[in-house]
Amino acid sequence: MKNKKTVLLSIALLLVITPEVVHAMHIMEGFLPAKWAILWSAVTIPFFIIGIKKVSTILKEDTNKKVLLGLAGGFVFVLSALKIPSVTGSSSHPTGVGLGAILFGPTTMTVIGIIVLLFQALLLAHGGLTTLGANGFSMAVAGPFVSYFIYRILKKKNVNMTFTVFFAACIGNLITYVVTAFQLALAFPDPISGFLGSLGKFLTVFAVTQIPLAIVEGLLTSIIYNLLAEY
Amino acid sequence: MIKVESLEFKYEDGTKALDNINIDLNKGKTIGVIGANGSGKSTLFLNMIGILKPNKGCVKYNGSKINYNKKYLREYRRKINIVFQDPEKQLFYSNVYDDVAFPLRNLNIPEDEIKVRVEAALKKVNAYEFKDKPVHFLSYGQKKRVAMAGVLVMDSQVILLDEPTSGLDPHMTKEIKNIIKEIAMEKNIVVSSHDMDLIYDVCDYIYVLRRGQILGEGLAEEVFLKENLLEMALLEKPWLVKIHKILGTPLFKTEEQLFDYGIQKHI
Amino acid sequence: MIKVESLEFKYEDGTKALDNINIDLNKGKTIGVIGANGSGKSTLFLNMIGILKPNKGCVKYNGSKINYNKKYLREYRRKINIVFQDPEKQLFYSNVYDDVAFPLRNLNIPEDEIKVRVEAALKKVNAYEFKDKPVHFLSYGQKKRVAMAGVLVMDSQVILLDEPTSGLDPHMTKEIKNIIKEIAMEKNIVVSSHDMDLIYDVCDYIYVLRRGQILGEGLAEEVFLKENLLEMALLEKPWLVKIHKILGTPLFKTEEQLFDYGIQKHI
Amino acid sequence: MAKFIFAIGPLNIAVLINNLYINISIFFIMAFLTTFVANIPFSKYFRILIIPFGFLAISIITILIGISDVDIFIWSIKIWSKYIGITYQSLEDVLHIIMRVLAAISSTFFLGLTTPLNNIIKVLKKIKIPNLLIELLVLIYRFIFIFLEEANEIYTIQEMKFGYIGFKNSYRSVSLLIKHLFVRVLVKYESMVIALDSKLYDGEFKIGD
């Protein structure tokens, strides 16, 4: 009995800083048909395994880093539970995909990201267990890798750092949204216009919220990056 | 002024954190709120500043219930504010000045006025000398004083202090005690602390909490004489009260009074 | 047993944190290390358990210098260990049992022995009743006790306690005081604290630190009578010493002694 | 273990079999068990349940509405030369989705709201999930709560200092909050490494069976 109460209490705590509006691009529990749920898990698992392997080689050199990974995970979770004001007047959350990829590297973010997605499903009702594969691919694989590569390329070309970080985080966020729209369109092709029609519909509908949010995320990430550089 | 009237606050799971709380800040200039860990002091403070909303009862400001809309709270918080226990969590900037100026900049106050007020606040807590130091080079006691300045700068009428001396060494504790006494000359202070000697010294009126209820209240000199009350609340007597009870010396409010008494006795 | 011999420790930027420190844990069963914030107490503790390596001088265990290789330190830390001040930073599991069992599992001790030792340690700090609660639902005082159990479970000979009562209410402080006294019957304890009353009550021998140097040392009853010493170290007398000085009552070591004295006097 | 299977089983049934009637039953059974048997107030249950429904609403409408040159819809409006409307099939699809979502989400809630992480960890150990992953789960779970509490406190302090009035202030405050949390990650890391050392950590966070 006590445990149920305490779990509920934790949810209550989360609701204080979790918001009235939906978590932007998490495909909710049970939304995807079995075929697609399994397919996306199959796509994501290899990345996850590679991530784990890579992380464990890093950990072999310095086992203390395990705690750092744990701390980073807690940090990313809280980041995604934070409420930020968005242009439409409502509020939303930073996905933390870009910031995480820049701070911890993309492979680490794959591992941490998927674990965080699991806890989000269990504690916050964001996303779900059956959609973990699909969400994992868009948020813990595609987003971080794209963000990180943009960051690396622009950094090498000596582009202004604030812009580099802004662009990396912004595009990372957009990619997440495009991939999700893609996943939804594949699973629910339009009966008349097929996959492409459906993709068009999803991209349009979510663009209303996602494009401003991507810009917000980019701005926010660059401010944080500068604050950290100052420190 | 602020009054709390038959306030009840429940957690999400339905357990009562606060139950039938009545508090009147008019009863003293410096009010003490004491109670064991988990007796509801922090929850009470959060209700008083409008962060948590009571399930029953209310918080009244100047005779009328406070509102929970953004605009009202914004005005309300210019009147009442709080210094939290852990300074590490309250200092966001790496620079002392920017940190203390934070609330004023949020209110769009012109920079030259900000400068005057920030410097005055820093001086009040004896922190002016390290105003240009990076925050992470400050000692714990210094951080604690900067955190205090960060609230004093808003110039609110009522200031809640949550464990103002926790983690401080005896010397620093004394210093904070003096700062509190000084601020109390212009403002109303509410202090919560586990340090009974501090509470006894700086507060004139005391509320004793136990498991979310007010177990007793009264003038400092009265409350701390009630042995049963303190025991039920899992608290202790201040040592000045202890020696009064055990040795039969007169009841002194401060160490200095006892000291003077000691000198006279020897003469 | 452990001795610190003319130890010097410098930070990376070259400032001396500790200078010519000599400490001998044989001098008392429970040793107190007192000093203002930033006087070097924590740095000293970290040197004593071999986390930091001194620039000069050494730490000796049973007459020979300690080594700084991994294997030696692992053995060494089975003999001497530390409870840090902030419990949040030393609890790694959400599950109380797993957390307390952590060091034993690192030593590959069989699970059935672990069970016996974990339960004994939890009982010693009165934490057995909440052993099944997740750590994040424990109160601060409960977390603090779990952290203590996590070190007691190793059954080391010497235990360093860094601010064991900070942030605790008077009742819990008393409880911790009793726990310390109980542990001290079997082990050597070193306590650092800002609470002079606690130090005076539980410690028999005291080292006074100021700016990284030992300013004075001696039996508790002697050190706390040296007014100059305490003043220079920015510390205070325990109140039992204060009334001895001011009122001329005999010097008592504990409140109970004063209490008995008071009763006799009234008869 | 039993509870775990009891939650994961229906979740799989809901998604794999995807039968309308089975899913309705799963939803009611799970909702009943979570609210009544596990004693979670209905109002709270409902509040958590509607969290992801913003996503559901938007996606459902997107699936529901189609565009065509000819009016093949059971209900439609004509804008210029195009018809925008709902087909019978999309209506049926959507009904299936909603029922599947309800069944699935009530099962996951049952797991999330009634099963402590430790029980889940034990199951994961039994099915031979790699150790490193379990260790990370355990650590991240613990640290989530540390940072949540901190974020909550910092947020309150900023709110008391007018940090969330208007856009400019809010952005500044959120960025400061995140930066501050990250700095605290690093500070914690340093002191935790020391604590680990003194706890004889040898590279693995061991967990009992």
Verbal overview:
The complex is a heterotetramer, with one copy of chain A (231 residues), two copies of chain B (267 residues) and one copy of chain D (209 residues). Chain A is mainly α. Chain A has helices spanning 2-17, 34-61, 65-81, 97-104, 106-124, 132-156, 161-187, 194-230; strands spanning 84-85, 91-92. Chain A contains eight helices and two strands; from the N terminus they run αααββααααα. In chain A, a hairpin with a 5-residue loop joins β1 (84-85) and β2. In chain A, α4 packs across α7. Residues 1-23 of chain A have low confidence and may be disordered. Chain B has eleven helices and ten strands. In chain B, the strands form two sheets. Chain B has a six-stranded mixed β-sheet with strand order 6-7-8-3-9-10, sandwiched between helices. In chain B, strands 2-1-4-5 form a four-stranded antiparallel β-sheet, covered by helices on one side. In chain B, α3 runs parallel beside α5 and α4 packs across α5. The longest helix of chain B is centred in the middle third of the chain and has 14 residues, at 111-124. The mean pLDDT of chain B is 92. By secondary structure, chain D is mainly α. Chain D has two domains: 2-115, no CATH class; 129-198, no CATH class. Chain D has eight helices and three strands, in the order ααααβββαααα. Chain D has helices spanning 2-16, 20-37, 42-49, 53-64, 88-114, 117-126, 131-160, 166-198, and strands spanning 65-68, 75-79, 82-86. In chain D, α1 packs antiparallel against α2, α1 packs antiparallel against α5 and α6 runs antiparallel to α7 (131-160). At the A-D interface, α1, α2, α3, β1 and α5 of A face α1, α3, α4, β1 and α5 of D. Chains B, C: GO terms for molecular function: ATP binding. Chains B, C: Keywords: ATP-binding, Cell membrane, Membrane, Nucleotide-binding, Translocase, Transport. Chains B, C: Belongs to the ABC transporter superfamily. Chains B, C: This is ABC transporter ATP-binding protein.
Topology:
The complex is a heterotetramer, with one copy of chain A (231 residues), two copies of chain B (267 residues) and one copy of chain D (209 residues).
Chain A lengths: L1 H16 L16 H28 L3 H17 L2 E2 L5 E2 L4 H8 L1 H19 L7 H25 L4 H27 L6 H37 L1
Antiparallel strand pairs in A: 1-2
Chain B lengths: L1 E9 L5 E9 L5 E5 L6 H8 L7 E6 L2 E2 L4 H10 E4 L12 H11 L4 H14 L15 H13 L5 E5 L7 H14 L4 E5 L3 H7 L2 E6 L2 E7 H4 L3 H6 L6 H9 L7 H12 L1
Parallel strand pairs in B: 3-8, 3-9, 6-7, 7-8
Antiparallel strand pairs in B: 1-2, 1-4, 4-5, 9-10
Helix pairs in contact in B: 3-4, 3-5, 4-5
Chain D lengths: L1 H15 L3 H18 L4 H8 L3 H12 E4 L6 E5 L2 E5 L1 H27 L2 H10 L4 H30 L5 H33 L11
Antiparallel strand pairs in D: 1-3, 2-3
